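Fold this complex.
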Amino acid sequence: MASTPNLAASFDPATSPDLVKRAELSEIDASTKAPALFFLGSAVLWLLVGTTFALISSFKLHTPSFLGDIEWLTFGRARTAHLNAVIYGWSVNAAFAVSFWLMARLSRSVLRHSGLLMIAGAFWNIGVTVGITGILAGDSTSIEWLEMPFYATPLLFVAYALIGAWALITFRFGKSEHIYVSQWYLLAALFWFPWLYSIAQIMLILEPTRGTVQALVNWWFAHNVLGLWFTPIGLAAVYYFLPKVLGKPIHSYYLSILGFWSLALFYNWAGVHHLIGGPVPAWVISAGIAASFMMAIPVIVTGINHHMTMVGSFGALKYSPTLRFIVFGAVSYTITSLLGSLMADRQVSEVVHFTHFTVAHAHQGMYAFFTMVMFGSIYYILPRILLKEWPSAMLISLHFWTVAIGITVYVVGLSIGGIKQGLEMNNADIPFLRVVANTIPYLLSRSMAGMLMTIGHLAFAVNFTWMLLRPRASQDTAPTLFQNPPAMEVSR
Amino acid sequence: MNRAPLIFLGIFFTLAFSWTGIILTNQLTYGKLQPIVDETENKSYPEALPGLAAQGKLVYQDLGCIYCHSQQVRRPGFGADDKRGWGDRQSVGRDYIREGRVLLGTMRTGPDLRNIGARQTSRDWHMLHLYDPQITSKGSTMAPYAFLFETRKIVGQPSPKAIKLPAPHTAAAGFEIVPTPRAEALVAYLQSLKDTYAYPETKNVFVEPAAAAKKTEGKK
Amino acid sequence: MSTSDPKDKNPKIEQAGASDESIQQVHSILLREKDEPQESHSPMPLFLLGFISAMILMVAIYFVRNTGGLGPKFGFDKAAMVYDERFDPANAPSSSAEVKVDPLVLGKKSYTSVCAACHQATGLGVPGAFPPLVKSDWVTGSEERIIRILLHGLSGPIKVEGKDYNSVMPAIGPGGYNWNDEKIAAVLTYIRQEWGNNAPAVTKEKVTEVRTKGAAGRTTPWRLEGQRREKGAAVGVAAGNDLQLVEIRQAWLHPVVLLAQNVVVDEAHPRDVVTDRARVVVPPPQLVQQHA
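Structure:
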């Protein structure tokens, strides 16, 4: 194509005049700039911190003498610091940024009281910093996903209260009549998370409940953070960006509804599958397994919805970074969730429980799905709030390929290693140390995958910073259409 | 149409439903289990942790041992927990009711520790293993915890608590390696981990129908 | 509401005018922002309804088969104590039924918890204080006698293995440690088969029998006192009966032994006390209470 197509033709021939809508959107984007930048910048910093701890932990598992004399970096603490940095640092900050931006856009309302969000962000990030420092110093609570010591959590609580208040205000002032599917997911996530976290804090730390009821609380909480906080936000992003980038509607509203409510119903109960074979009553374990099986329904329904939306447009993956990351994430979501349903089967669990397979599964969910979706979202959002373009296509490409290959090697390697580990562990004739020795090659492959992913993260961070710092120049292709509609400079 | 209140109700209900079913029901049913008093032995089971072991549990938490070690034995026939000597019965809820923080763990990079106190009673083994796992378990990927030990000059008599390390860790002449209080506490905790009491509910196991038929015949 | 036909094969992706610059390839899409997302209203595929119904059915069946007993007759309270999902309350031993307990295991545990304090884990006792159980025919001999000793205790001077002891053994049965019959039988079986002892096991039923018939109503320890009886000396009692432990009553000068009329000294156990200093016939099976 030698000439640029008519800009007017690139608009959807909708019935309502959308120039007004576009102007509105640009206003909304501008209002999200400060908080979104704050959260996204924090997220990228935490990504680098989390990646560092990830590498340290990964090396220590196959080479235990690595930094072995430093008490602050002992594996039990470094691994925990990694988890908290990537979850509460990177993932939650990115989740907040993407949610605000999506909420503002989908409610068609300017982001009000962004000062609230900035204060919230400060509290949150200080809280996480204090928490991770506490973990490294030895104050970890040793409750999975809730390890930050008691002096950090009030800061997180204040932050979230502010965000909750803000969300209600925004939603109330929303001008859109139809509540789009992404908004259901975002509303749900914003509501569920504080309840999960607060109940867990109360029932595990403030007034610990008795015996293994603690385990039930722990895994109801931790699994639901994955399924009722990160998953909905990830799906909200997919449901927004997929049709947005393609210019096509989501395939079926009915599938969206079914997908949402079945997720809400079944995901809640699935957490007990972390305790298969454990010291809790058999009936509640079976209930958790049943719910985990039933999760196949929302996963397949959502997968169909996404796939049918994409059908015919797979060529676009060549061009759009956002689309590429989002589709990678959405496909990973389907695979990881179906694998998760499989892992809940007692015979399968007998082999893979307690092994590196579960680590691979966790990373497939949080990274191959959620993190990739966040990357895609950030690639879309940042130009719109900074009114600049990403400086380097090469860095984006490098980012994509290193992390895509990296996470694939990671998941495949550790999954195979985990199955082998589980089968050998269930054979009492094989001495335990031999089982351990046999996992080392797979742990090494994970370290190598991790190093690849680190390169990708550095590429991303460099691109991000460069974009932030470089001045808005004329060679930038026009950010959004209504900046200068008549004098629109099209890309060369 | 403002569907928001409906959505909110649905969102709330789903969370409340799962919390009630998973947590509340179990807190009401087995959360109020009491220890069993065994009259022959005049003890109540499960036993409370002695003081030093309780401090050791804090060290266990501080160092993040749960990320490699589980503390739950699966029933015989499910996995090989019993065959590996990790326990002769499935861990039951009552085993944990005295614990302020239940540390079940979800990874077995290292062996299950629920009954390590019954399996490995030697303080010296634990000390050597903590100092550098390679000493007792060559090829282990467990981290070394030499920072839990203090190398100090021998003043007067050598400490009876000093540990004897093989080369290349042997202390220099005139020096001894002594466990810090944290190490002592941690080892005391590990030595306290044993679930040997047979509560009544440990009899609630699956019985093959043929065997059950024989039993009822015998009773007649 | 939808503005583009989802079946449209031509994606509404505008490609950069000049596609030779790499930046265009990546960024051109960003320039042409599309409308906000919409939802189309394609109907649910039929196979999906079938799939969902099948899932519900299969998972319901799975759950019902693995409830660990939970059911209409076996409520949450009882199911809370079941950790094996295959458990079937119908097949399981009921809570009231006796579950087979290995008497030697129970016996050893019981011995260690109470008896070993005096008789020692080695069974050798403490010379001068507590008699040994090793190779003692107090242990391996008459089971009735040893059952009675455990039930009610024993005090006063006795001779074991040629040595004198004068101590108090507390009652292990009712009125003392309050062990049940099964436990007493178990510990007796244990001591009769440990340390080289080799005597038949004691059954729970025998303990019950002795407790309810032979020594019912007794509240004080047995006493055994008197002179050693040399094997073979004439006593003048009928032969052939099992030895019954007899009650003695302290007289103002000498200990007096009350003998049941048909009691004999068991020739195999000559050390049991008999005295021929005085004899009072007491109708069996009543034995007279010792004065406190």
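Chain A has a mean pLDDT of 89.
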